[in-house]
Specification:
By secondary structure, this protein is mainly alpha-helical. It contains 26 helices and no strands. It is 76% helix and 0% strand. It is globular, with a radius of gyration of 25 Å. The N terminus is likely disordered. This is Siderophore-iron transporter Str3.
Length: 634
């Protein structure tokens, strides 16, 4: 690149990858044809992205953009991506082995039915945590927030590994899930920070590719430590509460060092422009504050009060659905009634607070546009239908199918392998077609075929039907999940990207938590009833409760054919409901805007192009700017 230096603000607006793209001329022509006018037509024009200062940026956003100047082209950016890859590999190995231990941990204490309650709580946490994490990442920094998430992950797994009662298992699962959700969320945000729309799907797929390898490695790890035995799962949890933090230390070191340098550079660059970023506003306002004032500042910026109202509201509304079959009197139990009433009050209070009183509302109105709402609808129905099946699917398969522990683990990872394996192909397809909408609709249609096969499995659970159902679901999910992220992240400016993604995750979690609650209610009612019908003449009520309370016992109970029949009939209607609900995703997907995917960071800020500069170019331009600054002072 030659010629006069560009304004420094364009350092923060001109980001990653290549100097020359072989099809960039065609892409630019297509983008010009559909760009600003198309964006305005879809409601994007209200951002007025060309106006300086129209959208102020938080400190974390400015620093991640300055990070590209710190690394530039060369070893810095290679180390950066290598660190992300290392995080992805170790984390995927953890997820591939530990994701299914909860059912065995609860069964060890004779409390397998609690798995539904854990699922609801974790789904709520998975929805409420990303907004907190997104705000922290914006006003603090990406690497520091990721470090906090890793610490929570390790503490939660340590609690599970050493648990002496079911309460500790539940508490450990919740703490771990905050960290786990944070790691997943922060990885996706950092990838989105550093990639253009046209390469984002591929980059995300590449980072998740280790899941394909580790899905097969996981079966041998689980078998060797006998993880599905009464206490073997403890080693499974304990192993990764040590391995993950240690393995992620080099990656975090690279990110933290780069972020420290980017912090000074980002503030320096902001001072040299007329654009007033939130970086300066925050750093200036925090100087001289007392500890209490700083606490109030962050409490307000995080909208912590509103998010707590929302989290406790959803928890109180949904948890009774998992407890009604075991609580005395069901829904007439005074405790459950109180939870429902309090939950309703808290939920309404959250809506009132967020709409009228919150200085920094959970969901800024400016992020609302047709594509954003359509993608939220797609993922809501996607996860709602998924968890009507998935909440107890692995437990159901463990009982009705006679597989070894290794093969059982392989089966549980089929969806992950299919999603991560096919995602690379679809990422490249999006890169060269520059489109995502119709690919998503095709993927959702294939997923419906998989849901239909899952329903068929309740009548004939053959190996072929079960495996193909998971392959189809994974194939469709590979397209749909990343397409929703592309749609949401492309429809908002960089400043709002993290919170918009968090809102998408929230409604996905709301959908999954509602369906887990429904599924848990059905499981807790239908399975005992069918066990009584088929085995009531053979076993007394205490023995039947023991069979229901542990999938170990259920799988070993005779007559085996009657146990299988009881479990298959118990889930028949639930799986059919999941199939019907899955059509909702397609209906929502039709309304998304099919905008052009090019080298821009998003479809709003036309000036933010992803292109890394080399070190020499960066140094020359920074020196030029410093010279100008000294001249102006003199």
């Amino acid at each position: 690149m030659s010629g006069a230096p560009q304004p420094v603000r364009e350092h923060l607006n001109t980001l990653a990858f290549s100097e020359n793209d072989p099809i960039q001329a065609e892409a630019e022509a297509e983008a010009d044809k559909e760009g600003s006018e198309g964006n305005a037509e879809h409601g994007y024009g209200k951002y007025n992205p060309g106006a300086e200062g129209q959208i102020t940026q938080d400190a974390g956003v400015t620093r991640i953009e300055a990070l590209y100047l710190v690394f530039g082209k060369g070893w810095g950016i290679y180390a950066f991506w290598a660190s992300i890859g290392l995080i992805a590999y170790v984390y995927s190995l953890s997820r591939s082995t530990t994701a299914y231990y909860a059912q065995f941990a609860t069964s060890s204490f004779g409390e397998h039915t609690v798995i539904g309650t854990i699922g609801v709580i974790n789904a709520i946490v998975a929805g409420v945590a990303p907004p907190f994490i997104a705000k922290l990442a914006d006003i603090w920094s990406r690497p520091h927030t990721l470090t906090l998430c890793v610490a929570l992950y390790a503490v939660g797994y340590a609690m599970c590994a050493g648990a002496k009662n079911i309460q500790t298992v539940v508490a450990g699962q919740v703490i771990y899930n905050v960290g786990n959700t944070g790691i997943t969320f922060m990885n996706s945000i950092i990838i989105a920070d550093t990639t253009s729309l046209q390469w984002r799907a591929f980059a995300d797929a590449a980072v998740n590719l280790p899941y394909v390898v580790n899905a097969f490695v996981a079966g041998y790890i689980v078998e060797d430590i006998n993880a599905y035995s009464q206490n073997g799962w403890r080693w499974g949890y304990g192993m990764f509460c040590i391995l993950l933090p240690v393995a992620m230390s080099p990656a975090l070191a690279v990110l933290l060092i780069g972020d420290y340098r980017a912090k000074k550079l980002g503030v320096s660059l902001a001072k040299k422009t007329e654009v007033r970023t939130q970086t300066l506003n925050d750093s200036e306002s925090l100087k001289g504050m007392t500890a209490w004032q700083k606490f109030r500042f962050y409490w307000t910026r995080l909208n912590a009060f509103g998010l707590l109202l929302m989290g406790f509201g959803f928890a109180c509304l949904l948890t009774p659905m998992t407890l009604n079959t075991t609580a005395k009197g069901g829904y007439t139990n005074p405790s459950l009634i109180a939870m429902l009433v309090i939950g309703g009050i808290l939920f309404i209070s959250w809506l009132v607070w967020d709409c009228f009183f919150a200085e920094y509302p959970f969901m800024p109105r400016r992020v609302l546009n047709r594509t954003f709402l359509a993608c939220v609808g797609v993922d809501f129905f996607y996860f709602f239908s998924s968890y009507l099946v998935n909440a107890y699917f692995t437990s159901w398969v463990y009982v009705v199918v006679d597989w070894s522990d290794r093969n059982y683990t392989f089966f549980n990872n089929i969806v992950t392998v299919a999603m991560c394996g096919f995602a690379i192909f679809f990422g490249l397809l999006m890169r060269y077609t520059h489109r995502y909408k119709y690919l998503q609709l095709i993927g959702l249609s294939i997923r419906i075929i998989g849901m239909g096969l899952t329903y068929h499995a309740t009548k004939s659970p053959t190996d072929a039907v079960l495996v193909m159902s998971q392959v189809c679901i994974g194939f469709g999910g590979a397209i749909s999940v990343i397409s929703s992220y592309i749609g949401v992240q492309g429809s908002v400016p960089h400043q709002d990207m993290a919170i918009a993604t968090a809102v998408l995750n929230l409604w996905s979690s709301i959908g999954s938590s509602i369906s887990i609650a429904i599924s848990s209610s059905v499981w807790n009612k239908e399975v005992p009833a069918h066990l009584s019908t088929y085995l009531g003449d053979t076993y007394n009520s205490t023995e039947l409760a023991g069979i229901f309370g542990s999938i170990y016992v259920a799988r070993a109970t005779e007559p085996r054919a009657l146990v299988k029949q009881a479990y298959m009939e118990s889930m028949n209607k639930l799986f059919l409901s999941a199939l019907i609900v899955s059509f909702g995703s397609i209906l929502c997907g039709i309304f998304a805007s099919n905008y052009y995917l090019d080298q821009k960071h998003n479809a709003i800020e036309q000036h933010k192009i992803i292109k890394f500069r080399n070190k020499k170019e960066i140094e020359e331009e920074l020196k030029e700017k410093e010279k100008e600054e000294r001249s102006s002072r003199d």
